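Repro:
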Amino acid sequence: MTAEFIVITGGPCSGKTTIIQALAEAGHTTVPEAATELIEDPALENLRADPLEFQLQVLRRQLENEKRADERAEPQSIIFLDRGIGDGFGYLSYHGLEPFEELLDAWPEARERSRCVLFFDSRPDYQAASHRSETPEEARRIHDILLADYRSRHDRVLLIPWLPVEERLALVLEEAGLTGRET
């Protein structure tokens, strides 16, 4: 485990996955959003009904995905995460739930390995998707909770405004120190 993480996060409909896909297409090591993987798995159709169990499964999937990415990444490289372990705190708070032990145990290493958190602002015109169940108002509330929570738990949270994909991608690569090279 020698790679560093850059967490790309934000509320629903903030363009995280689009940037992660662009990074992957450019040859960078990425980790997909664990929650979306679970939501899109037909065998786990009813998992979202229990927010605590859902977040526990998201954490476990996230840890598995990070481990696999770490195994294929070059030493001293950067892995871009579509959401990070810290998102679990915000989503639990959104549902009025306290963090569970596995999340609390996983957080110190996740924070240590994360160079920074790039917090994406949401797009101005909220767009529904198959894996999104939130209204625009709920999405904004999630955005605000996640931002406040990350700011309280991580010392380097950078706000990334809503911009065209190419401009956001350039900001991400600049922050990673990767302008003009691949990891």
